Amino acid sequence: MHGGADRTRPISLFVLAMMSTAVVVGLEGLPEVGSFGLPLIIYYAVFTVIFFLPVGLVAAELGVGWPHDGGIYRWIREALGERWAFVGTWCQWMQILIWYPTVLAVCAVSLAYVIDPSLKRVAPFMVLTSLGVFWMATLVNFKGLHFSGWLTTTLLYLGTLLPVGLAIALAIWWIGSGGESAIPLTWSAMVPRIDSIGEVVGIAAVFSFLSGLEVNAVHFRHVTNPQRSIPRSLLVSGLLVLTISVLGALSVAVLVPVSEIDLAAGTLQVFEYVLDPLGAGWLVRLLAILALGGMVGHIMVWVIGPTESLRVAADDGLIPPAFQRTTEGGAPRNVMLLQAVVVTILCMLMLFFDVNRVFYFLTIASAQIYLVMYLLMFISVVVLRVAQPDVPRAFMIPGGLPGLFVVAGGGAIAAVAGIVIMFWPPSTEDMAMSGIWFTIPLLVTFVALITAPLVLYAFRNPEWKGSPGMPGAEDTESSWRRAD
Q: What is the DSSP letter of 428?
């Protein structure tokens, strides 16, 4: 999102499509998806139809119908009440919380490539770098500093789209010059191997890498002719996400043997494998600096972003006053401190467990929690269409109620299926884990995270409502803007 843009200026179809692409595409998912090989083309196409596009269409209708502060919290509250709105907001925040260590690992690996690539296998270096980046991002946001939209957007494009584009170009050059591919490049190799539930579980990780479109919903009301432009922009962004993600992941698969793929290193391994033998290792360091900048920019805008829904929940008295306190710059101090402490504990796991396994576990856990939020969002759009049909909506999912049921119902079924399937331990070529070390910890994590907001809601205090501390809408509007 371009935070510095004029909020009343119409947004073109192309700009909206690029914004949607930028918020979804990231470096952190390419290695994990790349391990699927050519079948990932089929996987991404299926997930785009059953999940990515439904999320975009549903978020568009809710965003233009209820264009208020709070986003997902406001939408679910209108449809299902405060309790489930708080659960949805909690899931959104928890998903980001669990996601942080994975993107921080990419930061640490990027810095390792700048200094010495062997450091990516040194757990203390990975942990200290991850914590350094996150606490820096937290403290900078404490100061109330606002990084302009153009700067953070530039960091994200240079640090994500440029490296991915170069990785794709290198893979094409490698194959074109007669280099050997690490995966078979035949039509038959594109046929998915779904011969076990463990294989399907690995594929389900794609849910995590096609999420985030709902954060752009606030901009949908600034589109000219939304009924025509929004579906077209989603189609364009879907094709862009599909193309960039698939080709980016394949560049990793083509050049890096599956057994050697580092889930945190990703695209940088492509550069290492190709450029080092050519005597251009210095380019790897330069690209690592760009990747590091992109990931830091990503983290900077996310550290404060998810707390906006919590701010609106605080207005309803759902959060204890202690977590409504803010810094002088308007940042929710105690929420961010709690966030930093939890992220610190999660990052410490890298000292005791294999980084790849920690990365995979956290990816799956965050995807499951996020899918709960999406399930509530899909239910909400149906409830609101039926219960509040007269609310003006500049965009509505085409096809009337049947069309709505197909889109939202299909998305809801996909979300439930994803949550259930992901409890099964993976058994892909690059990742195999036992049920004792995967399913049981994941089930405990899931139950604890879903139960927590229900317990907190049950013990809410009516006197918390209206407690001073969290910034008002007029304060956050000028101080905190997402810029991805």
A: E
Distances (CA, A) of 186 to 2, 81, 183, 189: 41, 52, 9, 5
Strand (E) or helix (H) holding 447:
helix 439-458
> Looking at the domain that runs over 16-479, which CATH code has it been given?
1.20.1740.10
In terms of Cα–Cα distance, which of 345, 384, 383 is closest to 362? 345
Give helix 355-387 / helix 82-115 axis angle, nearest 10°.
Answer: 150
Residue 5 backbone zone (phi > 0: left; psi -120 to 50: alpha; other: beta): beta
| pTM of the model as a whole | 0.80
Strand segments (E) across 259-363: none
Which residue type does 106 have? V
Q: What is the C-alpha separation between 438 and 457, in angstroms, rounded?
A: 29
Whole-angstrom distance, CA of residue 340 vs CA of residue 334: 10
- Measured between its terminal Cα atoms, the distance across the chain in Å is 5
Q: What is the pLDDT of residues 185-233, one digit of tens each?
A: 888 888 877 665 555 666 777 777 777 777 666 566 667 777 777 777 7
For residue 115, the one-letter residue type is I
**Within 10 A of 184 (CB to CB), how many other CB atoms are there?**
10
For residues 234 and 56, is the Cβ–Cβ distance under 8 A? yes
Amino acid letter at 126? M
Smallest CA-to-CA distance from 446 within 426, 423, 427, 424 is with 423
Q: Are 215 and 1 a contacting pair, CB within 8 Å? A: yes
